[in-house]
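Sample A.
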Amino acid sequence: MRGVEHHLEALGLSLNRDKTRVVEATEGFTFLGFTFKMKHNPKTGKWFPLTVPSKRAMAHIRGEIKGLTGNRMHALGTPEVIRRVNRVLRGWINYFHYGNCTSAFKALRGHVEHRTRTYLRRRHGLAYQAYQRFPQSLMYEKLGLIKIPTSAPWTASAKAAGRR
């Protein structure tokens, strides 16, 4: 801790002692929206650092999407709502896609599809039939909703490296 403080002072920076602590990586910690922890891989028997979006980050993006697809947005029209949702999603995906994001992205994708269908159903005054009336193809191809990837981009390169 003293070494870090010394280097930061040389740069004209300082640590916030109330927010800074030293932890064991095995207990896990949250930093800049990511939760870091050491996990054991039962297949290989090795430990690896797991980096996932934090619960707080997940709750925040879910709240953003809910707000953008709520009843108050009906006056904007569907193209504007989809544009705003895409803008928020694009930023969130670009920030978090470097970690172990597969399960978080799958959960977020399901949430976005559900909220988009709910918005469309309410916008068109329908009580039911959201899945039949608004299939994935309509949301992604016709309306232009961003399709959230269900795996991190680095997994493809890791698989390719393993095949050599």
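Sample B, a different protein:
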Amino acid sequence: MTADTVGGVWTYALELVRALAPFGTRVALATMGAPLAAHQWEQAEALPNLTIYESSYRLEWMNEPWDDVAAAGEWLLQLEAQVQPDLVHLNGLVHGALPWQRPVLAVVHSCVLSWWQAVKGEDAPEIWATYRRLVRQGLQAADAVVAPTGAMLRAAQELYGPFQQSAVIHNGASPQAFRPVTKEPFIFGMGRVWDEAKNLALLAQAAAGLPWPVYLAGDARHPATGQVLELPNVHFLGQLPASEVKHWLARASIYALPARYEPFGLSFLEAALAGCALVAGDIASLREVWGAAACYVPPQDAAALHNTLFSLIEGESVRLNAAARAQTRALQYTLARQVEEYGRLYQQLALVPSTTGLASTTSP
């Protein structure tokens, strides 16, 4: 399995590895993007069925990555020869077209081109042409392509398809890991405030005048300018370890993230399991996952977000009912269900000859 160490895929990969352990499944995890942090090594070393193979190759969405992407491909093929796996599970998009010896599953957690359409409202510029070509080659060559929602899969098919085989497998979480405690009067959100997809800037804008404070877990410092935001009624908590995130979710009454782009939204699932009422951006993927169990606002409408939050604050019965609906819905998305669906697909792919390696290689 591959995973990057700089985003949510790391959490996804470790949770899946943990859920596979009772079935005797061992995982060799090839990491890219950046060296593992100390807390990531601690997480990995707690899993007896996991072996880490670490690298810092740049990822396909990073600046000028293609020499690293090609070198990473050679490294991954060497690992396959060394480890002799039954199956290759890629959490990146370009390496599916390598000449693998075993069946290949590629998971589209997100992609630059669908992000650009959702956030910018237009097609990605020509600078992303190489990315488009190599991702298309990688996904079309894979034996199967998985996405965490039907919305993400449809976007990937339109941008990069057709695929040999595809499936939707929703992400999952353990209900036991996110237990509510006595709820407190505040709103919680997670993500970098400068991330246009997460759209936390809109939440910060809507916070002014609310009777409850808004707490945001994430970096308030702009990565380019170094500017630090200071906004009324908004408290920035910085980067928090997973244990502290769970603590904040357990206490929060409302979880708000008016996202423009969120292919699944694992943070919503964690918040719902922790008993929070959900306020989400009105986008297809979140509607698919949460149905009537969340409150939705247009991602560009600060007034609508403010009013929705105000109504939940003032209406205790409305807020408690919303939290109960979200928690009930969240119980559909368990790790047990996720690993069962991946297990069926793993078994199916491992029993058929691989067809990967027939497309062009990933060299730009």
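Observation for Sample B: The CA atoms of residues 166 and 277 lie 33 Å apart.
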